[in-house]
What does this fold into?
Amino acid sequence: MKINCISCDKKDMDKTVIGINKKLLGENVKSFYCMECLAGYLDTTVDELLEKIEEFKEEGCALFL
Amino acid sequence: MIYADNAATSRMDNEAFEAMMPFLLEDFGNAAQSYSFSRAGKKAIKQARLTIAECIGALPEEIYFTSGGTESDNWAVKGSTLLSGELRETITSEIEHHAILNTCQTIERLGFPVIYLPVDRLGVVKPSLLRDKISSKTKLVSIMLANNEIGTVQPIQELCSIAHENGCLFHTDAVQAVGHIEIDVKKLKVDMLSASAHKFNGPKGIGFLYIKKGTNLLPYLDGGAQEFGIRAGTENIAFIVAMAVALRNNVKHINHSFIELKKLENILISELSKAKIDFIRNGSSLGLPGNINLSFRDVEGEMLLHRLDLLGICVSTGSACNSKKTQISHVIKAIGVPADYEKGTLRISLGKDNSEHDVLRIANELTRIIDSFKNTVFVDKINK
It folds into this structure.
């Protein structure tokens, strides 16, 4: 299933982007932001989100494997 | 940054930091040596033992330095149960820290039976329950003084009396309580008490076990003659000194800190209530000062933790992502938090550096995040 950003319509977001949406917006989220739009929505930076993703991967979170 | 996870660890006391430095750079001699260069270290350890003893109403020779709360807990449980070789039982509670629970699992594997007492909705171990379970087969009762997740303070004096009436030893894991509420081991009548310095603004990697005079324990580490011959290893003089200074300073201001932290707790709770956030407070408001454990309805605690983190606010959660599913903490399970609240558990633990501004900001950001979560049209309700 191809998933586009709910805000800017950026196409084909990958598993990592979906994962960080679920982590920060709720596990039952049905639509997703791309990294740039998610960072804007949460008033943070893409770099900060990337750091978070690395930490989740290191913790073994299945959303990012 | 707002640091509101003081139950996990606390910032080191400035005076404690200053006090330990000379023992790292100048007076670095091994306290076990007999030359005069080691004298300063030896004297410092003696003074630290005395200071710590005074802070908890003990004798200096009843204070044994360890590497922290985990070691103290391990020592108390293993050192007393394994001593005689008889397979007598241990009684503990379901909401102990894993330093106790996992140690109990180890002695169970060795054949020593363990009974885990349940707690009530506030997290209290009912003395009547201990009275029902204790028997001539029981060797040790180990109940924490205050819970690390929900702050509940246990009726230790009463529980200890029951243990003694039945000829058992009583240990309390007081890691969260020492330096935060008044503790007098002679009033509590406990036989052993564990403490960890980094929970009361001391350094990490140092703690102590109070062992009442006359209590027999197996040595925890075999080796040299340090710690009256039952806990070997070269003393970490710098950290021992810092621990004593940190504890002394916390105890000096214990009543003032208690009042201030309770005030901050009330502000936070009142702000969240005013914002009509649906939550329950776990534990008792009469518990450890600054420990606020909240469960928010139909919200994910882990999501809250990470969203607050992005805003520079450090708290912890009672539910953690365990690779595939959300794992609810054993304490939250044991006190029976309703299913639609348990996933949304957060622990905010305030310390002496927190201000009214901090709690107002935490309440404000929590309200904003929860409102946005509830109002987001593309989010379904959490499956119950």
